[in-house]
Each structure stands twice: as C-alpha cells, then as structure tokens.
Amino acid sequence: MAIKVQEHPTVVQIRSRPAPVPVGITSAWLREVALAAGADDVGFVAIDRPEVATERPFVEEALPGVRTLVAFVVRMNRDSVRSPARSVANQEFHRTGDHADEVAQAIARALVEKGHRAVNPSIAFPMEMARWPARIWVVSHKVVAVAAGLGQMGLHRNLIHPRFGNFILLGTVLTDAPVDAETQPIDYNPCIDCKLCVSACPVGAIQSDGHFDFSACNTHNYREFMGGFVDWVATVADSKDGRDYRERVSDKETVSMWQSLAYGPNYKAAYCMAVCPAGEDVLGTYLNAKAGFLRQVVRPLQDKVEPLYVLAGSDAEAHAARRFPHKRLRRVRSGLSPDSARGFVLALPLIFQRGRAKDMAATLRFRFTGAEQFVATIRVAEGKLTIVEHEDDPADVVVEADAATWLGIASGKHSPVWAVMRGRLRLRGDRKLFQRFMACLAR
Length: 443
What we know:
Blueprint: H1 9-16, H2 27-37, E1 41-46, H3 56-62, E2 68-75, H4 78-82, H5 86-113, E3 118-119, H6 141-147, E4 152-153, E5 159-160, E6 168-175, H7 196-200, H8 214-221, H9 226-238, H10 242-248, H11 251-263, H12 271-274, H13 280-288, H14 290-303, E7 307-311, H15 315-323, E8 328-332, H16 341-351, E9 362-369, E10 374-381, E11 384-389, E12 397-402, H17 403-410, H18 416-421, E13 425-429, H19 431-439
Parallel strand pairs: 7-8, 9-12
Antiparallel strand pairs: 1-2, 2-6, 3-6, 4-5, 9-10, 10-11, 12-13
Helix pairs in contact: 2-5, 13-14
C-alpha cells in the first residue's frame, strides 16, 4: 500500500527542518562568481529599468518573478575570427559559444545554491523555434548588455566592448534575486566610424549612413541556418532526381550543409566583426599601421573567391555584382514566410529594398479581413518605409484582402492576379504603384 504523502519519510524530514531563507547576495559577490566561472566582464540590470522594457514580457515568461538580469561577455580569439578560412572562424564562434553557455550555467547554479531561482537561456541556439519566423530568442543579449554597461552598438550592429572590442560573445542569466548595485550604460560609443565594416560586407548589408539591410545579411551569412535551411529542404523536395538536384546545388554546397548539420551551423561571413578595430585592446594595431591592417585583415576577406547568397533582384545582388565581381552570386530564396498578416506588416522594414525604391513616393493602405482584421498604412519616401496603423489620410493604393489569402501571396503560393480573379483581393488606386511596391520586397 502506498504511503500517504504526509507520512512519507522524505516529507517528514523536510517538514522537520526550518524553512529555507534565501541568502542575500551583493553585486560584488555575483561579479566574483561570474569572473571565476570564466566571464571577462559582467553587469547587472533590474527588470524594471526602461532600457530593457522590450525584454520584460519574454524573460518573465521564462522565469516568472525575475528581478535581475545578469549580463556578461566572454572574449574570442580575434585572429581566428579574422581568418579567411571559414572553418577557423566558425570553430571559434562555436567553442566560445559553448564556453559562454557553461559560464551562464555556473552563475545560475551559484544563485540556486544561495536559495534563489535562476535561468540561463542559451547564448545563441537552441531557440524557441515554435515562434518562428517571429522572435525566437528568450532574451536579447545585446539589449541587456548595453543597459548593463558592457558596450554600445557599432555601425555594424555588433556590441563593442570598450576594452575588448566586438570580439566577444554575450550571455544573460535571469534571477529572482535583487542586487544591491546595478551597472549603467557607458557614456560613449567605442565605434570609431571607420567604415571598414561597410567596405568588407560582401552583400552590402551595412551602409555608411547607418542603414542595415536585414534581408541581405540573413540570406547570405545565415544560409545554413533557419530560413536558408528551409529553402535548401524545399530545393531537395522540388528536385526531380539526383541529377536535377546537382544542377541546382553544387557538391560543395551540399557537403557544407552536411558539415553544418553534423558539427554546428556555419556562418558564411563575419567580416564586419573581423575588420572592426574598435576597443582599447584592439585599436592600437589599426592606428599604428593602417596600411598593414588593411593588407593583412581587410583585403584577404574582400579578395576571397566564394559564393554569395542573394535574393533575386535585391539590393544585395546589385551591390555584390558591382563591388565584388570575382565572387560568384547564388540566387536563392529567403525561406522566410510570415505566419500572420500582422507579421507580414511588421516584417516590411526588414525586407524592404530601398535601392529599388529610389525616387518612389507612395502611401498604401492595407485592410485585412477574415481571421485577422486590422488596417495598416505604409508610407514610402526617400528610400524609407514607415508603418502607421489606422491612418485615415488619403492613400495612393488601397489593398483589401483576406488575411489568409494575403499570406499565400506573401509566400509566393498565390499571385495577386489569381487572388483578384477570385475576389479575395481588391485594389483601388494606382496598380502600377502597387506592383512597384511589391517589387521592392525581398522574398
């Protein structure tokens, strides 16, 4: 016969003890724990700080009752990251990433041993793929690191630590323990605006005026991650036989995908990071011998013969063909498909190709019906796209569509003509302007 819960020996033993009381911690103690675990710098941010307001709903989901975010950095070997040999650079990312996850686990364990709750989300992967293609990360390490005073974002969208530069990986530990002293953002940006990241990016994702082309970076650099993998699987499925597949995908690309599956996804480029000279420990080499720095660090990456993955008709394709004619262009699909009409609208700034929108001025109003019902106004002017919900000003084009049908159009399953003929899409206004707008979206 089963023992009643209240009579179970373990229950009796636990109830005979005094209730555990969490041990108070200090930021000095927590910093010592982090450094001993292998972190190179650490900072602390209370959950109610305005700088991390965007993260709060997600970290509270991961750890209800979270009060403090512990941000830390670990250094990488910058010569490995700078190597034109992708296997060397990627190995550095993966090995340092594994180390950073171990650091986060050690910090969390120390907090738990003091009677507090703690969670250590992955520094990179795995992520919450059930949310794909929306936000898949538990916490944005960059946002927390900036708030914690571990650096500022550079032109290339990497965090630059004031001492270590951008040759770092980031981690965050969530805990319900309060700390007695927080850290604050640094009051300057270590980025020296040298534009070397602009010159090195093979697909023009980083631009000198501060614009960042998400679709260009995601399509090339992350070819063997997420969306690129989805596209590769679709290519396999679409191929008639082995010969047809080999006409679509080279053997080099196939074995590279195998390597990513077997040993960890391979980044196709981290050139923006490799050439960055910012940071006290890094800058001297650049300042003291710029010509040598360009010759040894920048030009080998620019001159490397390699495939560049681009979306057909994208700004990245035009940039790569003009700037790097010796690199082979591979037209691929993004593998990204929105899972909601609202998701499509929110993704527009990420897939909008401002080069193709040169001299374009238009206001488009989308009215979605069916499963999702909302209105969004899109404005395009001077190569920029902005989104306004529920705007009633006059529009050049009004698009009325069933939300599910529009998702089919956005993913390429249906054409706008097909939807119009079936009454699932109605267009009022300048149809040529609508067609031009759609051509400015990289998919």
